[in-house]
Amino acid sequence: MRINVRLLIAVLSVVWISVVSCSSNNNVFEEPEDVSQYEVLLDHELRVLILGNSYSADATAYLDELVTAAKIDKRQLCVYNGVINGGGFEDWINKYQDRATVNLERVTGHIQMESKNSLGKILNQNWDIVILLQVSNKSYEWDSFENNVPKLLEIIKSNCLNNNVKIAYQIPWGHNVHSTPWELKGNVECARRAMKEFDIQYIIPVGIAIQNARNTSLNTDLYLTWDNWHLCYGVGKYVAACTLFESLISPIAHVSIVGNSAVHPLSNKERSYDGSVPVDENNRLLCQKCAYCAVRDTFVVAEAAQINEVQ
To answer: The sheet that has 202-204: what strands, in order across it?
Structure first.
């Protein structure tokens, strides 16, 4: 039997490309066969890129659970998180200048974007919102904003395909009971000033939402952390994810986070960490109200009575 060599090479090439494509992107979410679960259409597609650190990993850990419970059409959405552990503005600038490889994790949505390349190539896509985070031990130092944010914004705007890309900043939480009062105040002041002086359109008030929760019965001995830095599994990460949902998705889905049916029972691994508290029917609504109040009053910590009044 005569083999058509050209045809064989073409077939093998297609197979090789398919294998490489699948193996190079571990974050591909399979679109469910039954899309009838999608009941809520967004006003428009939303592509979000986070240039973050472990605090953005905390804040996005349960975001997909909330999106799923809200029955949002994930075919209109993607949120990708980039993490430099212990990193902030300057580290992302260096990553760009060094042309180092960036690996993104798709935390929710079905829109596929390039997720492994240099930062310049990653940015050279049609992002709608880019969220920035400063490393927590500099998030209350204005010099770290003044010296780096303009450079980072120039990098984003000169590379992003979307000329109308919006920039957001996520406020971090205070570390623990001893440092939080002055630290959170500095975090808020820097965020407020950055929004005023730079081209930052949105604030994601995760730090405010966590402080709201600390003012309620949700608080724990470790101040909703597991190590005095990172948010505890269960309630801590859930409140943070609720804040992202209310900030990013609620405005274009017209669905409030308050009333979302998602709960989060702890896995065995999560249970092994100090301070873990499951999210159940007894506390999920209070978690959501803490986030709702933070988004409604971005720079102001709410008292327990005010939070409980949310309908």
So the answer is: 116-118, 101-109, 77-83, 46-52, 129-132, 166-170, 202-204
